Predict the 3D structure of the following.
Amino acid sequence: MSDTKAASPAAPGCLTDAQIAELHSVAPGRAPDALARHLASCERCQARALFGAERRPGRTKDRPQPPTLRRALLLAALVLAAMAAFFWTLQKLAGRIE
């Protein structure tokens, strides 16, 4: 195994650190074809070339707390009251209630 592969955190088949350094040293559009083709198809190597290493996952946000039982019951009561008002109005408009 070559020493460039041993020093690289790359997976098998990915670009080595030396190859990524070579890509950084050349002008845009002048990269060797084999390296440019691999970089175009490998998301892992693209991240290493752009960010210098593996992208770490971002900080996760804390999940919001579920509503308390009191709030849930209040919401249910309001929905039931609105439904009752709707059906009462519907019955009144239909002429079933005077």
Observations:
- Residues 1-8 have pLDDT under 50 and may be disordered.
- Residues 78 and 84 are 10 Å apart (CA to CA).
